[in-house]
Amino acid sequence: MERVVDAAIVGAGIAGLSAALFLGRAGRSAIVFDGGPSRIESVGEVREYLGFDGLPPRELLSRARAEVHGYGIGIKRHRVSSVTPQADGLFEVQHGHSVTFARTVVLATGLIDKLPPLSGLPKVWGRDLRVCPCFDGYEVQGKRFVVFGVPKRLVHMASWVWMWSRDVTVVSQHAFTDTELERLRLLDIDVIADEVTGLVHSGERLEALMTRKGKSIACDAAWIAADMVAASELAAHLCDVDEMGLARVDGAGRTSRPGIFAVGNAADPAAHLAHASAAGTNVGPHIVMYLLEREIERRKFSRKDAHPADISQRVS
Ligand SMILES: Cc1cc2nc3c(=O)[nH]c(=O)nc-3n(C[C@H](O)[C@H](O)[C@H](O)COP(=O)(O)OP(=O)(O)OC[C@H]3O[C@@H](n4cnc5c(N)ncnc54)[C@H](O)[C@@H]3O)c2cc1C
């Protein structure tokens, strides 16, 4: 017989692992599916996460995994390919060549930054090519910044990073509105009407940006305003999603489909590690309540007097 768990947690980033920790300590059976690297693994050091400042992300994640293991929660290196609701209220979770049935599913699948295919990008991504000064603006404050990327987020990004340095240049072919140009002018932000085509680096250190018109723009840090999309299509098949494919959730992490929850970047593109962790912890009690209510309903109909532990089968 296939196993049934209280919760299938899809994604082993900080959001999924935080949910797993809560559920493990609540005595619930759960399994975490780890389908690949976490978004944070592109950086060398974690920032802006109290208690872990400067820690390599792999160390943070391996500590978190060990803690989750300690409460009997298994972590499987499988990507989940589908989650199918069943007539009896369970969810069939397909992973690798196996199937697990779950009473609830937590989507902790994160998001993907849509990066342009620029030469040199893989070397500097997460290092001198950055996404948000909240994370690592401190390390490069006052240095030469260049901002480029998708037009709709450019002006916001350029004025936001200006709070960390007065030397900011935007490179874009975009036809900015008068209001946008005025905002940039008021902050003395230069605009170069061109397109970034490559990144010149020495090891992981960014030295300059190359442009379509053949310019080389020297800089110390580049900020990319990138589009973001859900890292998995599972939410789109199961519940209401936004234009990025991220699950729409209420304050408890509940999606539009009962029994399906979503946490971290899978539901909130602005979530940092601290928020993702808090969302994972926050969803825990709501899942426990959901399981409890289902068990009470089951007893009402079957009039059986099973022990509450019957709703959970531990898996390792
Ligand atoms: C360059 C960069 C620097 C950053 N620096 C910081 C920082 O210093 N401090 C900070 O607080 N935040 C930082 N962040 C943000 C941080 O990465 C996110 O807040 C955090 O990773 C969100 O955690 P999460 O668990 O929601 O998603 P993730 O950590 O991305 O985890 C999602 C997991 O789900 C897995 N997955 C996806 N689909 C499936 C599937 N179908 N089956 C199984 N598994 C699946 C993914 O492989 C991944 O492991 C940074 C982000 C970037 C891009």
Fold and architecture overview:
This protein has eight helices and 17 strands. With 316 residues, the chain is an alpha/beta fold. It has two domains: 4-112 and 228-311, 3-Layer(bba) Sandwich (FAD/NAD(P)-binding domain); 116-225, FAD/NAD(P)-binding domain (3-Layer(bba) Sandwich). The strands form four sheets. Strands 1, 2, 3, 4, 5, 6 and 17 form a seven-stranded mixed beta sheet that branches. A five-stranded parallel beta sheet has the order 8-15-9-10-11. Helix 1 (14-25) runs parallel beside helix 2 and helix 1 crosses helix 8 (273-302). The chain is elongated, with a radius of gyration of 23 Å. The mean pLDDT is 94.
Tell me the number of helical segments per DSSP (H or I, 4 or more residues long): 8
Bound molecules: flavin-adenine dinucleotide
The proportion of residues forming helix, as a percent range, comes to: 25-40%
Sheet of most strands: 7 strands, mixed
Please count the beta strands (DSSP E, at least 2 residues each). Answer: 17
- CATH class of the largest domain reads Alpha Beta
Q: Overall pLDDT, averaged?
A: 94
Please give the radius of gyration in angstroms.
23 Å
Strand content: 25-35%
Query: Superfamily at the CATH H level of the largest domain?
Result: FAD/NAD(P)-binding domain
